[in-house]
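Predict both folds.
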Amino acid sequence: MPQPELLLTPHGPALAPRYREAAARTPHPNRATTPAHRSAEAAGPVPPHSDEAADPVPPHSDEAAGPIPPHSDEAAARVSPSAGTAAPPRRLPATAGGSANAYLRLFSLPGARAFTVGNLIARLPAGMFGVSAVVMIAGTYGSYALAGAVGAAGLAAGALAAPWIARLVDRHGQARVAVPATVWAVLGQLALLLCAHAQAPAWTLFAAAVLGATAPNTGGMSRARWAHLLKDDPGALHTANAFEQAADELCFMLGPVLAALLCSALFPEAGTLAAAVLFLSGMLLFAAQRATEPPAAPHAGGGAPLRAPGMPALLAVFLATGAVFGSMEVVTLAHIDGPVAGPVLALQAAGSAVAGLVYGRARRTATLAPCLAVMAALMTLPLLAATTGSRLALAGALLAAGMAIAPTMLTGMGLVQRLTPEGRLNEGMTLAVTALLGGIAAGSATGGWLAEHAPSTTYGYALPVTAATLALALRVATRRQRIR
C-alpha cells in the first residue's frame, strides 16, 4: 500500500485532503463513540471569538496546573482553526531524561541558541557601565560624589525613557526599534567617555548621561521571544523564564568584576569602551535573528499595561523588592569596606542563579506571597551574621539569602506577563524593571545614609529585612484582587 501523501502547512506536516477524509471515516480506537460525542464532533471547533474561546482557564484547573503531555489524547484532539487539521501546539519534545534535560530541550528550538547568545552579550554591559563610569569619572575629576550624581542622573533618565522605548518595540518590532536605540545609547556612552577624558565641564557629563539613556530592555525582549515561541507550553515557558532570571544574575555578577578589571589593568576608560562594543555587537546579533522575533502589534488593544487591573499594586511590590537589593549591596560594601566586598556580594548573586535554575525545573511552583515570605525570613540571616563579626558567616548568610531572590523575581515576572495586555509584553516587563530600579535607587540611598549615621554598619542590615517585609505586606494587602 503506498504511503499517505503529506502536505506542509504552517503548523507542520499534515495529511493530504483525501487521506484526511478517509481518516475521518475511520473511528479512532481511543475515541468515544457515544451520540453526544459524535454530535460534539460534528459541531466543529470552537469559533475563535466565541464566549467559550474567550473564557480564561481557571488558575486552579488541571490545565492551568501544568502542560498537557505532548503525546496524550488531549493534545492530539486540539484542532488548528486555520488549517482544519490536527496540529498540536508548539511544545518541546519529551526526552528520556525528563526534567533533568529541561534546559537542553529548551534550546532545541530552532533559533533559540542564536538569539540567546546575542542577548547575553548585549546584557552583560548592563553590569559594566555603572562601575566603569564611577571609576572613569572619579579617577579623572577626583570626586566620587560627582561620579555618583552622574550615574543617578543617567539612571533616572533611563527609568523615564525605558517604558516609551518598550512601547515602540511592541508596536514596530524589536529589530526596527532596539538597534537605533542601542546605537544612540552607545553614542551617549562614548560622548561621556570623551568628556571625562578631556576633563570637560561637569554639566557635559550630565548631558551625555541623560541623552544616552535610551538602552532598550534586553532581558525583556528575550523573555518576549520565549513567550512567543512557547505560548502553548506553560511548563517550558516557566523553565525559560527561570533561565532568563539566572542569566540576569550572572550578568550582574560578572559585569562589575570585568569592568573593574579592565579599568585597573588597562586605562580608566577601558571598561566603558569594552561595554559599548559588547552592547552594540550583541544587539546586532540578537536583532539579526528575525525568525524568532515576536510579530509587531501596531494596533495592540487592551489599554496601557499600567492601567491593567492589579498592575499598579504589583509594581508597588517590585518597588519594595528593589529596595531589598539596593540596600543590601550598599550596606555590605560599607560593612566590609575592602576588596573582599565584591566577591562576598557575588555569592548572593551566585545563590540566586543556582536557586533560579533549580526552581525552573520544578513541576509545581509557589505563588508570590510565599516567595516573599521566604525572602523576608532569609534576609534576617545577614543581619544575624553581621552581629558575629565573622566575614565567613556573612558570606554564607548572603549565599543563603540570595537563594530567595530568583524564585521571587521569576514568580513576579510571570505575574507581569499574565497581567499585561496582548501585544504590550515588552512595555509591561519594562515597567516592572523600572519599578525595581526605582526601589534599588531608594534602597541604595537609604542604606548609605543608615550605614553612615547608625552607631554600627550592622544596623544597616535591618533595612533589607524591613523592605522585604513591606513587599510581603503589600502583596498580602492586595490579595483580595485575586491576582495569582
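Second protein follows, with its predicted C-alpha cells after the sequence.
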Amino acid sequence: MNKQIYIMKMSQEDCNYMTVQELQLQYFQKELLDELNGFYFYLGEINNSIEINSEFYFLYQNKIIAKANLIGIINSSKLANIENIKIDKSFFDNKINIYLLDTKTIQIFEPINIDKFYEYITYEKGKEAWINMINKPIRGGAKKVEIDNNMYKELADLTKKPIELEDSLYKSRLYNNIFKRYFEEENLLNLTGLYYFENIHTYFLSNLLDINKNKIMGFCENNKYLPLIYLLKIIFNKTKKLKILENTKISDLTVKSQVKIGEKSIADLIIELKLNNKKYIVLLESKILSTENINQCKKYYDIINQKYDDTYEKIFVFLALTDNNQLSNNDEEINKKFIQITHQELLDNLYYKCYIETYNHTIYEYMQSFNYIIDKLLEEHYPIHSIPITKTLEEISEEIYYQYKDYLINEILKRRRVTNNEIIYIIRLLICIHNKVLNKKKDKELCEMIENFCKEEFFRYKNQSKRI
C-alpha cells in the first residue's frame, strides 16, 4: 500500500517574498508559533479529504522546504468573534480552514527541488495533483499524492538532512527585516543630523521632566512626576540614598534648560524642587561627543554654592557616554562632587520606562536617534562600549546572538563572506552584542575580538565609500 501525503502550497504573496531560507528559519520556527493557544497553524483552502495525522509537505518557490503532521482542523469562521486571536480576520470565512500542526513534528531541511520530488510520486493522480499544485496560484491548497513505501523511506532520509546556517545571519528575516529595519526608521533628528548635538538631548530631557510640558508625551495628572522620579532613582542609586524616595512627595518643581548662571556660564539643565518638604537644586551637565571644558564643572560648582544657601541640598550631575572618560577636571575634590551617569542609564532607566508607561511615539523616535550615534561615535574613534544601545536593539541582538553565536564567532570574526554592503549592519549588530550580551557573560576575549573587528572594518568601509 502506498503512503499518502499532502502538499501544501505557500504563495509568494503570503510569505512576503521571503527567501527559502528566511521562510525556513523565521516562519516555521517563529511565526507559526501562534497566537492560537501555542499551536502551530497554517491557513488554507478547505479540503474535506484531509485526515488528522496526515503529513504535510510545504511547497515554496518550486521546492519542498518543510514538513509537519496535522493534528487538527478548525474552520476559520468559528474564530472570527474571538478577540485575543491575532490572525488576520480577513481570512475568517467558510472557505478557509485553520490546519493545526504538531510542533514536535515540524522539520526544516535542505530544500528538495521539483524535479527531485517528482521522482517519488508513484501514480497518475498524484502526478496530476502535483502539476495542478505548481501551476495553479492557489493559497494554501492541500493536495493529496501517494508515494511508494520504499520511496517514502528514501524521502524521509532526505528530509533529515539539516539545513546549512552559513548564510543565516545575513539573510534570515530576523536580521534583515527587524534589525536592519530598526535602523532605517527615520525621524526629524536623524534626517537633520541633529542627533549628536548635546542641546537637543538636554531640551528633550527638560520637556520630559517638566510637568507642564510632558502632557504632550502621554503623561497625565496621575503620573506626571514619573520621569523625574526615574531620574532621581538613577542619581540616588549612585549615592546609595534610595531611601529618600520612599513615600515620595514632590512639589514646587521647576525645570529649565540652557540656563545662564554666570557671566559666561550656561548650565545644560537646572532642576529645583521640594522633595518630602526639603529643597533640592540639581545641576546637570550633558556631553555627547565632547569632554568637559577647562574648569567647567568647578565654575558650575562655585556658582551654585554662591547662589543657593545651605537650606538647599545641592546635587551635581555629569551626563556622558561613559562614567569615567569625559570628566577631565584635575581637581579630584570637584570631580567627586559630580555624580556621573551615562546616556545608557538614561535610555534603560528613564526613557524606556517612560515609553512603556505611555507608549508615546515621540519618546520612541527620540530613543531611535541614539542608533545613529553608533556610526558617528565610531567615526570619532570612541571605543564601542561607549555607545548607548536601546532596549529594543538589546532584545533583537540577544535573540540573534543566541541563535547564531557559533556562526558569529566562526564566520564574521574570521572575515568570511563579509561584503562591503553588509559590513555597516554587521558592525552595528556586533556592537549591540558586545555591549548587551558579552559584557554580561564577561567574555573578555570575544569582546576584544569584536572591538578590533569593528574598528578595522568600519574605517575600511568609510575609506572605500569615499573612493566610490
